[in-house]
Amino acid sequence: IPPGVYQMSVSEAAVPGEEVGRVKAKDPDIGENGLVAYSIIDGDGMDMFEITTDYETQEGVVKLKKLLDFETKKSYSLKVEAANVHIDPKFISNGPFKDTVTVKISVEDADEPPVFLKPSYIFEVQENAASGTVVGKVHAKDPDAANSAIRYSIDRHSDLERYFTINAEDGNIKTMKALDREEIAWHNISVFAVEVHKQHQEAKVPVAIKVVDVNDNAPKFAAAYEAFVCENARSNQQFITISADDRDDSANGPRFIFSLPPEIIHNPNFTLRDNRDNTASVLVRREGFSRQKQDLYLLPIVISDGGLPPMSSTNTLTIRVCGCDSNGSMVSCNAEAYMLNAGLSTGALVAILACIVILLVIVVLFVTLKRQKKEPLIVFEEEDVRENIITYDDEGGGEEDTEAFDIATLQNPDGINGFIPRKDIKPEYQYMPRPGLRPAPNSVDVDDFINTRIQEADNDPTAPPYDSIQIYGYEGRGSVAGSLSSLESATTDSDLDYDYLQNWGPRFKKLADLYGSKDTFDDDS
């Protein structure tokens, strides 16, 4: 190795395994005789650094072994040895085949984030504590030589309900509202620490806050109890066992104490026995109950816990009186069992209901039939004649029906230019009926009334049907076949020869005269 001292430097922020520097020993041999191995044999940095051999370049690579801290130690010294891997025994007397060199490594200061004094914090606070109660304090410092001031804050993602706040300067954590252990027993939040002048340098620490239980919940029935007692129950007979539940911690819960309120402790019906195992038994104090007199009892029971101070509550136990057989097995707890005996039987009630239903059906049918009756079409009252017009569906309009289709489609379109065919037009003048033909107002002679109406209709020119003239002479135009009518056939100029009709006999003589040759026609004329 060339004489002298190797100087190297490394940042305190470097991670283990990172390369610090290289050293190289010169060996004029070649091949395996020139291979060199490096090792650290002394120095105060033997625990912090290590050296490996790069066989491609025959160099020794110094690497970081542990994390560094500039504020703790700023430099290290290593003694590195380089030795041949293979030594020929013939030349072993020429040794030694190794050399050493000193490597000095200086640690450079790096801008580090704040560091909390603890990796995590655990605090306790009593439930129902007033807002502003101090929970605990976290502390962080700047490891750099500058020792910058630190500011604290709570990660709001870890405290969405905002139960806590922190003093930004001293790190004191306080409550912002009362805490309930029965809702949340532990709160886990995160606290940030940042340097005042370097906001990008921050640290984060978890903080667990335990809510200490306070005896603020009274014990209650463990379930919604409903008891049943037989009418023929014996004295001191147990018929139900009850237990309690407390939302508070076990330190403020059991053991539970069961008792009756002082005002009913000597009630004649039931008594209570505390089993001293957080349960109690309810017993019958007297013999015999009657559902006819009372079928339901409400028994108040006081339950106290063992907390400091103790909490208690009054719970009501519902007790029903039931009918039982001789073995004590429950048969019925419904009140109708004795109500029916005192009144009507089930069959009688069913019969009464059936009769009521039948009467209702009869009334509904009567009302329906009455509504379906039709009123007379003509009502004859003394000295009162009314006209009643009944409309029936007819099967056709006859001559008066001019709305089924427009007859004008058969008329000559030439009339559009000047001649407009006549339509059914109601006369413009109004016919005044003759006053002498109207029957007397109080007349009851229907025959005279009808005859009078017929005469008025016959003499009224404004009443339908109206006179109209329709022309059906147009047969159409534009046909290549010509007219099919025999009228005016003799006067038309035609190239056809009808002389052969003369030879068809007397039956076709009339046609032969009509369609004979033109010359024959002219001669006859």
Task: Give a written overview of the molecule.
Helices cover 11% and strands 30% of the residues. It is mostly beta strands and 525 residues long. Among the domains are: 6-108, Cadherins (Immunoglobulin-like), CATH 2.60.40; 115-212, Cadherins (Immunoglobulin-like, Sandwich), CATH 2.60.40; 220-332, Sandwich (Immunoglobulin-like), CATH 2.60.40. Strands 18, 20, 23, 24 and 25 form a 5-stranded mixed beta sheet that branches. The longest helix has 27 residues, at 346-372. It is flat. Residues 336-342 and 419-423 have low confidence and may be disordered.
Provide mean pLDDT, rounded. Answer: 80
Helix content: 10-25%
Strand content: 25-35%
Number of helices: 5
Q: Name the shape in a single word.
A: flat
The CATH architecture classification of the domain at 220-332 is Sandwich
Assembly form of the protein? single chain
CATH topology of the domain at 220-332: Immunoglobulin-like
Characterize the largest beta sheet: strand count, sense, and whether it forms a barrel: 5 strands, mixed
By secondary-structure content and strand pairing, the structural class works out as mainly beta
What is the string of SSEs from the N terminus onward?
EEEEEEEEEEEEEEEEEEEEEEEEEHHHHH
What would you give as the CATH superfamily of the domain at 220-332? Answer: Cadherins
CATH first level of the domain at 220-332: which class?
A: Mainly Beta
Domain Cadherin: 2-116, 117-221, 221-338
Subcellular location: Cell membrane
GO cellular component, one term: catenin complex
Pfam family, one: Cadherin
